[in-house]
Structures are given as C-alpha cells and as structure tokens.
Amino acid sequence: MTSQAIAEQPMSKNSVQQKYSGKPILTMTGVRGGYGDADILQGVDMQVTEQEIVVIVGPNGAGKSTAMKAIFGLLKVRGGSIVVNGTDIAGWKPNRIVQHGVCYVPQVNNIFREMTIHENLEMGAFLRKGDISESLERVYTLFPDLKERRNALAGNLSGGQRQMVAMGRALMLNPSLLLLDEPTAGLSPKYMEQIFEITRNLRDAGLSILLVEQHAKQALAFADKGYVLAAGSNRHEGTGQELLADREVAEMFLGG
Amino acid sequence: MPFMEFVNFYLMPGIVLGSIYALGAVGITLVFGILRFAHLAHGDLATLGAFAALGVVTIFGVSPWVALPVAMVVCAFMAIGIDKLFYDYLSERPKIIVVMSSLGIALMLRAVVQVVWGVDTETYTRGIVRPDDYWGIRIRDREIYTIIAMFVIVGVLWAFLQKTKWGKAMRAMSDNPDLALLSGVDNRKITMLTWGIVGVLCAASGFFLGINTELKPLMGWTMLLPMFAAAILGGVGRVEGAVIGGLIVGIAEETSVLFIPGEYKAAMAFAILLLILLVRPTGLLKGKVL
Ligand SMILES: Nc1ncnc2c1ncn2[C@@H]1O[C@H](COP(=O)(O)OP(=O)(O)O)[C@@H](O)[C@H]1O
Ligand SMILES: [Mg+2]
C-alpha cells in the first residue's frame, strides 16, 4: 500500500500504528538550544519516518525555524540528540550534514540572487562529483517554469518562482530528508497549491519531508503527521487529521 | 595640442597606469566581495611581488618576464599565509579589527622589503628604452605587454568565475554566504582560493608598475588610494567594474597634468573617490557581489 493510500484511509487506530512504525529518518529527542545563552528550544521531540510529510505548525516565534536550524547545525545544540539515518548529527557542520542526505530550504535568503536559475541548481549539486544532468532534468521536470527561464537571474524572479529555485537547489543532491521552512509564505493561492502539490509528489516518490507551514489547515490536510510547537516545546502531536479534528488545537493555533 | 600628442603623452600612459591600477583594484574587489573587508595591505603585497621578481632577476640573471610567474607564486603563498596567521584568526571579530590588522600587515610587508632589498630605488633592467612608432602611436613593448597582460589575466579570472565549479562557488559565497555553506561549500577553501588569486593579481600589478617605472619600497602604498578609488568607482564586488575604474583613474591621473600642476596628480584619485561617493556610492556598475 502506498503512503498516499494510507493517508486517504479513514483514521483507524491500525493505520496510525502503521505510520509510526515506518523506518525512522529523523529522530529529535529533547533538543535544547538557542542563539545566545538563552535556550529557545526547551526540549523538542520529533520524528520523521520514511516517505512521510511531517508538518510543524505554531505561532510566530515558537521556534519552528530555530528547530530546523538546530537540525542543520546552524546553532549550538546544548542538549538532546538529533539522529538522522541512524547517526547522531548534533554538532556537525552544515556541509557534513548535506553529505549525510539532509537538504534545507531556509525561510528567507534561500537563493543566490545574482546567479542564474541554472547556476543556483548547479550550486545545489556542489558536493556531487560527475554528471548532474539527470538531477537537473528531474528538477526542471518538477518545475517547468524554471526550465524556460534557466538563464534568468534568480533575484529577478517572482516570489513563487524564487521558492521553486530554492526547492530545486535543495533537491539537486537527491536528499533523503528535505527541510522546508514556510515555502508558501507570501505566495498567491495558485503558487501555494503548486508548491504543496510538488511536496506531495516528492513524498510519493520516496522523500521524507519536514515542513514548517503558516497555512496550517491546508498543510495538515495532507500531512502524514503534525506537531504543534509553542514557546520552544511540543504542545500537540498527531496525524494531520487528528490535529485538524482537535478542538483545542483548532481554537489555539488554527484560528478557530 | 595635436591629437597624436594627446594620445602619445597622456592617453597611452594613462591606459598603462590604469591597467596597473586595474590589476590591483580587481584584487581589492575580490577581497571585499567575498571576505567583506577593505584590505589595506594590498599595495604593499604588490610591492613584495615587484621585489620578489627583482630577487629572481638578480639571483638567476633571467629576464624579468621569467621572474613574473615566480613572483606570482610567492605572493599567492604569502597572501594565503598572512590570512592563515592573521585575518583568519580574527575572522569572528568585527570587520574593522581585520581592516586595522591589514594596515599592520602593510607596514610589516614594507619593513620586510626594506630589510631585504634596502631603501634605494631599483630597476629590473638598466638603460633607456625608446618607444617604437606604430602608425603615429609611440609606445614601448613593455607598455603593450602591460595592457595585454592585464586583459588576459582579468579575462582568465572572469572565465574562471563564470564557467568553473570553484569560480561559481566563489560567486555564491559572495552572493549568499549562509546558503553557500548550506550547499556544502567549504568557506575555508574559498578563502584560500581567494587569497591565492589576490596574491597573483598583486604580484602582477607590482611587477608592471616596477617594469614601467622603478621599484621603491613605497611604490605599492602610493597605489593604494588609486586602486581603492578604481574598485569603488567600478562598483565594489564587480570585476569588470574594477577594470573600467582602474582605466578611468589611470587616464584621469595622466591627463590631469594638462589642467593642474603635476604635483597634484596623485590627488586625482582622491577627487574621483570623493565625487563617486557623493554622486553614486554604489559605483558605475551597481556593486554588491561578484
Ligand atoms: N538569529 C537569531 N538570533 C537571536 N534570536 C533569534 C534569532 N532568530 C530567531 N530568534 C528568536 O528565536 C525565537 C524563535 O524564532 P523562530 O524560530 O524564528 O520562530 P518561528 O520560525 O517559529 O516563527 C524568537 O523569539 C526569535 O526572536
Ligand atoms: Mg520561522
């Protein structure tokens, strides 16, 4: 049974069990850390298993972006463990984490503005040796808009296209885990739907995705699992449907 | 004044001097674009390059043109070494501290040149070279080589930055350093590569100043202001801009003697710098990154 089919099944106890028993790709346990001396993350637990979209929602300043930066080695992790594909990567440098199969699209400043679309994608494949034309073709197939404008400077593109460049860059290394930080922020509904569609397709093609989203309702609707983060720690977790159905979550975090 | 006189006595010397400035300005722009600080030891690194070539000429009795590549290698390693010992050590500190330390490096490099080669004026070859006449344009071979070499060196650098994997990584680091790190680019390697290239460019500018004029321990230091003016004029971070800026500053300096006393020639760079900062602070080509 494909994960798509699982996601569309009514939420029986059994199918939840199946979801949680997949091969874990990322397991964060009790992660604490922050930028200066103060801890922003007060012990965060999360798990992403194989071929699954996990959505993180929560109010502004909850520490969603910080959690992603912690996974990617961009801030001091002072406690807990971050296990990816069986190895604890806490404290690793970003370029080692990339080689370990994790790619990350930051919330802001996620493209090389003064480089062409094509060069942005090439930079995504910087660590690859040998031919990258297959990956390029794959990304251009996912984002046909980009192929047409491959020699345009990325900084001159529309917001939606920039986001596609950013995702394309991160996909060039064929990661096993993709971190997306608010990829639809500020985009029109048309682009949002397109990005969500591509995200689902990537999942169905075998990728595991950790997605931070402000468009919580739309994202939880297709999420395999969701976490509600507030003030630097876990508040709720469950399948996307469970969170959508939870009255407290709906009132506090999904705008009623 | 007849046109050819203007070309031969003002324009041509201006282009030659401008080419020398351009080589320096491109290096300044690279350091600023990638490492984000104003490198004040740039001129004295050029002095070191010029004297390193002189050392090769006097020890091995070879032509200065053979000594040039050796001086480039010496300067490249020198620049990488200085970075490892000083700038890299300060890399987490505010940039102004790195800038000030580069001023200290400038004084150290000059002291080394003075200790090793003395304080006298030197030349690569003795004797006077008369210019040849090409359809009315009077120019010396070494001047032709200076201009050609500048365009070749900058052209190769440009192609490297545009076409090669590591050149693109340098541009990426200049464009968005955080994202370059996330893409797996090792910033230590980029820093080393940048300093290697900067050393080569410094050696070239010092060498061409030396072969067209004389070698003095202060030769590079006095080029520092015009080189910075050129880099800023062209738009900091822009390689093509640095070349255009260098040529403009060089030509402006040489033609300025038509209007103002020769002693004030050096003030031209300062005047251009002031003007550009007032009128168009981003430079002619909008500067920011490579
Ligand atoms: N670079 C930074 N330096 C210091 N504090 C930061 C930085 N980035 C974010 N913060 C702080 O960390 C907290 C969590 O921020 P963030 O993770 O960006 O929230 P979210 O992505 O959930 O909106 C906020 O209080 C924010 O002010
Ligand atoms: Mg955020």
Would you give an account of this structure?
Chain A has helices at residues 3-8, 13-20, 64-71, 94-99, 117-124, 133-142, 144-148, 159-171, 189-204, 216-222, 240-245, 247-253, and strands spanning 24-34, 41-49, 53-57, 76-84, 87-88, 102-105, 177-181, 208-212, 225-230, 233-238. By secondary structure, chain A is an alpha/beta fold. In chain A, a hairpin with a 2-residue loop joins strand 4 (76-84) and strand 5. The two termini of chain A are 34 Å apart. Chain B has a single domain (3-121, 135-279), classed as ABC transporter involved in vitamin B12 uptake, BtuC, CATH 1.10.3470.10. Helix content of chain B is 73%, strand content 2%. Chain B has helices spanning 3-35, 42-60, 64-87, 95-117, 141-163, 165-175, 177-182, 187-212, 219-234, 239-256, 267-279; strands spanning 132-134, 137-139. A two-stranded antiparallel sheet of chain B has the order 1-2. Bound molecules: adenosine-5'-diphosphate and magnesium ion. Adenosine-5'-diphosphate is lined by residues 35, 40, 58, 60-66 of chain A.
